[in-house]
Amino acid sequence: MYQKILLPVDLNEEASWERALPTALALCRTFDASLYLVTVLPDYRMPLVGSYFPADFSEKAHQAISDAQQEFVKQHVPSDVSAKCVIAEGSPWEAIIDVAKKLEIDLVVMASHNKRKFADYLLGPNAEHVVHHSKMSVMVVR
Question: Would you say 84 and 28 are in contact if contact means Cβ atoms under 8 Å apart?
Answer without folding.
Answer: no
